[in-house]
Structures are given as C-alpha cells and as structure tokens.
Amino acid sequence: MPGMPDSVAEHLAALGVTVPQARDFVLAHLDNPHFIAEVATGNGITHDELAQIVGGEVTGLEVAAFFAQHDIDTSELEEVEATDTLDDATALKLAELGVTREEVRSFLFAKFDELHAVVDLARENGVDGQMIADIMGHGAIGQQVAAIVRGAIEEEPAPEAMLVGQPSPQE
After folding, report:
1. What are phi and psi of 77, to 5 degrees?
2. What is the DSSP letter of 84?
3. Tell me, what DSSP letter sits at residue 166?
C-alpha cells in the first residue's frame, strides 16, 4: 500500500494479516473498542500502528484518546524504548508519591480529556513539566501528551496542532 511504512505491513504479514484486512477489522469493530484493544495488545500492535492501519489523518494520540474515552487502559500499546529510563528527580518524586511510572502514564491517558484535572493534580504534588515528559517516555504519543500537559503546567499554550479533539478557532 502506498505511503504505508514497511514495518506495519511487515508486522501484520508476520501475523498472517494484510493491511486492508486489519483496517476492515478495526472499522467493523469500532462499536467494540475493548475487542480492538484486546486484539491489538495480544498481537503487539501499537497506537501508532493502529493509526497507520486506519489511515487518513488519524494519529496514534487520537487512537489512545479513543480508547481512553471508553475507559480502556491501552498504555501498553504505546511504544516506549527499552532504554527509556527516568531521571533521578522523577524517580524520587514517584517514590515520594508512592506511584509507579505505569500508573501515572495510565492516569494521563485516561484523563487526557480532563487536562485541567491533570494539571491541578501535578501542581498539587510538585510534578513539573519535565517530570511529565520523563514519565511519558520518548515515544511519539508520550511526547505529544507530555508537551500538552507540560505547556499547561507551565502556563504556556500547547501548539494548536497537538490539541486533539479541541475545536479550532474557526469553528
């Protein structure tokens, strides 16, 4: 398929599925996001790969937000590099708060549509924008979420292109 990264097509081929078959499956089951998440998780398909499978202008962040809107934790579908380690300040803050990185990531994905709640909680607990970026990791979706939350914590507007699901000024 033109424009489709070889890695997605190859990943699906290793599973015995073509890109069109995967797209048909996802679109046919949009009313059952739990099933889509279960199949994706079981086959190691990431948010970004699901976005590429669906095609169009869909991003991995939008896929993650779709699942979060249905109260489905798909944080394990986010690509986090194996070398993705926390800096000392972030690790100490998480230990002080008694939470794990995975718990915070899951919370951020689940509460993405309630940005004010995330920002308030971060400020109350002394979590700064750099810590959020560190927790979210270096994957594309993690960095998008981190940029939005970091911008709000530091009271800097996030770039409009990154505000998924927000109406544009023209609307």
Report:
1. -85, -5
2. -
3. P
**Amino acid sitting at position 38:** E
**Could you give the CA distance from residue 158 to residue 25 in angstroms, rounded to a whole number?**
34
pTM of the model: 0.51
Q: In Å, how far are 42, 70, 86, 113, 142 from 128, measured between CA atoms?
A: 34, 28, 14, 19, 15
B/e letters for 36-62, b = 16+ CB within 10 Å, e = fewer, are bbeebeeeebbbbbbbbbbeeeebbbb
pLDDT tens for 4-55 read 445 788 888 888 899 999 999 999 999 999 999 999 988 888 888 999 999 8
Q: Would you state the structure tokens that stand for residue 79, as one six-digit string?
A: 């690509």
The token duo for 23 is 């797209």
